[in-house]
Amino acid sequence: MNENEFADKIQNLRSKLYRTAYLYLGSEAAALDAVDETVYKGLTSLKGLRQPEYFSTWMMRILINECKTELRRRNHTAAFEELPETASEQFDALPIREAILKLPSELKEPVILRYFSGFTTAETALALKIPQGTAATRLRRALKLLRLELSEEEVINEQKQ
């Protein structure tokens, strides 16, 4: 794959990368930085891509690693919670977003990739470097926990009214 093909494929994949980064990091600026860094690392490591048909999975894996690095960096440097940087507070206030953020990372990652980035279960498993059966099990467990969390929240909201 040459640089022009890389640029074309990145253009098609950029919005999916951004959505995934935004769900991981929670802020527009951090998500854009993570996507930019991912594109840079992908371009510089292009020779390491053994199977071009897995390009999107490969790039998503780079993005996930970049997001995890950013989250680790935040944990070391930030003792307080960041304020929202954009008017995306409405999305941030959605119960599903809050419920997903409460999930353990091993359950959160498959949910984000499968339902918000449009990956299949097989692609999710490849991106996370886990067996497909494990990815499916984690998705089922995560969905069960999300249902429980959201149903509890509905009960609480009904009691307030």
Strand content: under 5%
Kindly state the mean pLDDT as a whole number?
83
Number of beta-strand segments? 0
Query: What is the overall number of helices?
Result: 8
Head-to-tail CA distance between termini: 59 Å
* Parts with pLDDT < 50 across at least 5 consecutive residues: 78-92
Structural class: mainly alpha
One letter per element, helices H and strands E, the order comes to HHHHHHHH
CATH class of the largest domain: Mainly Alpha
Give the biggest beta sheet.
none
Number of domains: 2
Helix proportion: over 70%
Annotated CATH architecture of the largest domain? Orthogonal Bundle
CA radius of gyration is: 17 Å
CATH superfamily of the largest domain: RNA polymerase sigma factor, region 2, helix turn helix motif
Any idea of the CATH topology of the largest domain?
A: Rna Polymerase Sigma Factor, Chain: A
How would you characterize the overall build of this protein?
This protein has 161 residues and is mainly alpha-helical. The chain folds into 2 domains: 1-88, RNA polymerase sigma factor, region 2, helix turn helix motif (Rna Polymerase Sigma Factor, Chain: A); 94-161, Arc Repressor Mutant, subunit A (Orthogonal Bundle). It has helices at 3-25, 28-44, 55-77, 89-92, 95-102, 105-116, 121-128, 132-160. The chain is globular, with a radius of gyration of 17 Å.
